[in-house]
TrEMBL record:
Annotated protein name in UniProt: Short coiled-coil protein
Gene: LOC102745624
Predominant place of localization: cytoplasm
GO cellular component: cytosol; Golgi membrane; trans-Golgi network
Subunit structure: Homodimer. Interacts with ARL1, ARL2 and ARL3. Directly interacts with FEZ1 and UVRAG. The interaction with UVRAG is reduced by amino acid starvation, but the complex is stabilized in the presence of FEZ1. Interacts with NRBF2.
Secreted as UniProt keyword: no
Transmembrane domains' residue ranges: none
Membrane topology: Peripheral membrane protein
Keywords: Coiled coil, Cytoplasm, Golgi apparatus, Membrane
Keyword Kinase: no
Localization (cell): Cytoplasm, Cytosol; Golgi apparatus membrane; Golgi apparatus, trans-Golgi network
Homology family: Belongs to the SCOC family.
Lineage of the species this protein comes from: Eukaryota, Metazoa, Chordata, Craniata, Vertebrata
Length: 122
């Protein structure tokens, strides 16, 4: 009986179709199972989907890398702007000190003193 139970199981190439509701297995007819194109179509579709997914993944990876590169560039530019602002403030302060120093020298020197031209002509 065990040998017949294995035969009763569905074979990969045949489908068991029962003609009656009773358990008499002699009335079953075995028809060859039509070869399904579905796995081949699914494989072809899956290959196409895999190829599309691969292209999308490559595009996403490229865009992510580009965004990261732009972020780093922006950070570098921002740091450079901050450094230039600091240098600008430093130079402005130095210019004010130098300007005040020059004014003090000019006021202390007789060469830069204003003269009354009318009094000299008389």
């Amino acid at each position: 009986m065990e040998g017949s139970s294995k035969e009763e199981e569905e074979d990969s190439t045949f489908i068991n179709i029962s003609l009656t509701d009773d358990i008499d297995h002699s009335s079953r007819i075995l028809y060859p199972r039509p070869k399904s194109l579905l796995p081949e179509m699914m494989n072809a579709d899956m290959d196409a989907v895999d190829a599309e997914n691969q292209v999308e993944l490559e595009e996403k990876t490229r865009l992510i890398n580009q965004v990261l590169e732009l972020q780093h560039t922006l950070e570098d530019l921002s740091a450079r702007v901050d450094a230039v602002k600091e240098e600008n403030l430093k130079l402005k302060s130095e210019n004010q000190v130098l300007g005040q120093y020059i004014e003090n020298l000019m006021s202390a020197s007789s060469v830069f003193q204003t003269t009354d031209t009318k009094s000299k002509r008389k």
